[in-house]
């Protein structure tokens, strides 16, 4: 069970005043999150224009690694970032400051090829499953056992429906005999209920401004570190009971 910090994602700069968008800001923010209890980091590198960029991964990963030595660092490979299959593959193949892992969304057509490219690079894979259809596709892959972990990442705003989808994905993984670590996370209004569910299931979770900007009581958090500290306290209370 770990708490991973997702510090920025695809959020726009007006989402929160402390959203980190430069390599320097991400490095400082990541260090604060680790100090607050984050065991790992999930980052969306940004180019000089503030937009997400796979090509910017080297500089960002290096800056964060220097600020957080020994902490595992992951990045997104979302198809929307480069919005072109060839550019996505070329950017990943060109990485030299390799992240420890990268997330791959099974909803995306090129996911199997991206996963194979990451393996060739020596980068771990977080398999992102947002729907039961994603889960069914994942378990049919011949090499589905060669992933670091499974992300059950639900973006359905309605909590009962989101919970049903999460349980459905978990059931498919169970039936297929998948024995990889699960990290569960929601978005906005489902973030904290999913933190609670992850704790109950003894799964990992993630929190941060990529997924939501509020604390469990609905107040807007000061920054990523405050969100991480709250989630870490939630998990710690279970380990102590």
From TrEMBL:
Q: Which domain of life is it from?
A: Bacteria
User: Pfam families, per this entry?
Assistant: BKACE
| Gene3D superfamilies the UniProt entry points to | Aldolase class I
GO terms for MF: 3-keto-5-aminohexanoate cleavage activity
UniProt-recorded name of the protein: 3-keto-5-aminohexanoate cleavage enzyme
What organism, scientifically named, is this protein from? Mesorhizobium australicum (strain HAMBI 3006 / LMG 24608 / WSM2073)
